[in-house]
Amino acid sequence: xxxLGTYDSxxxxxxxxxxxxxxxxxTGVENWENKLRGEKDGEWAEFRPLSGSAMTVADAQRFLxxxxxxxxxxxxGICGYRTLSAIRLxxxxxxxxxxxxxxxxxxxxxxxxxxxxxxxxxAKNQKAEWTGxxxxxxxxxxxxxxxxxxxxxEKYVAAPNAMLRKVNEDTQPSDTIKVSNWDFDPNKIHxxxxxxxxxxxxxxxxxxxxxxxxxxxxxxFKFYGxxxxxxxxxxxxxxxxxxxxxxxxxGWHKIGDLNRVFxxxxxxxxxxxxxxxxxxxxxxxxxxxxxxxxxxxxxHWGGEGLFNVGKWSVGCQVIVGLGYIDHNDxxxxxxxxxxxxxxxxxxxxxxxxxxxxxxxxxxxxxxxLSGADQDDNVVRYMLIYERDLALSPEIGAGKAEEIVTxxxxxxx
Length: 412
Fold this sequence. Notes:
The protein has 9 helices and 19 strands. By secondary structure, the protein is an alpha+beta fold.
């Protein structure tokens, strides 16, 4: 079975060394003793030769590449992080788009069931239905969201609000971009967070009620979660990520705890700018303080979103695993395999392997559909406010509420 860390018997030690160095650069982690981090608490995958599989790793990579699931993937015979994401994305496509529930949950294990579906696709020369969609030939919804982003930039370049004036004036090195340099190149990966209900006067009542939109390769996928800070013991108050664009990449959250460290999108190099509030309401007095570059404000998983934000976030952007809205604007239910908490990850519930659900779909899309160059893997995260949606008549002021309402209606 092909799983994280397996490699073909003809792969040379030098190729493994090359991948390990690549993984260190990709993740920013140097001290993991040449192991790959799995999804479960305390799970580490050692590199090991593949055995007992009807398909080699290289054959799987070629299939996924030809099928449009892993278009820029490297065929190196090593199942690393990006190949794992491509396998899961294929499994999710078969399950959700084709309706083949028998494939099971997208666990990243390419065994007999998944290989049988790959053989079926190869026999028909079948490709993902998004093959042919691109930044140059995007879906209508993708084009509408990109148009909105350009209008948001025009608005705030002409008249930045108090927070964005602080960002423009800040001289500290950070991964937060000044307004005039916001980059909405359609060839790059964009994630939009839409913050709703800005005023939350009572700490502890923050809800998973914000919308997220992933724009990648001409496609639009929608998720929900929270952009609000949750619990914080910092005497300076709750950290709010500043409005605007920030650079993120594939990385790890809670890096100091090797048993609990998990995959997330993390600030690219130097941290993103935050402003703190002691009472959850941003005031002029809060904005008068110096902004803080913070390297711990990640974009990560938030369970099924069944409770308040609480300890899921100190100031991170948190995405719920219950479900998502796909490139066809269809709601996809992930509840059968979406874990509620960390210690359920990688276990089975009624025989179904438990994962981060919709959050994995987001990160798998980023990993599997991104380009080969390092910059192609950078996610440009744009935090806007719900009122900004009114700049686009095609999208409309109520779009974030609609996304959240549709996804919250899923049965847990």
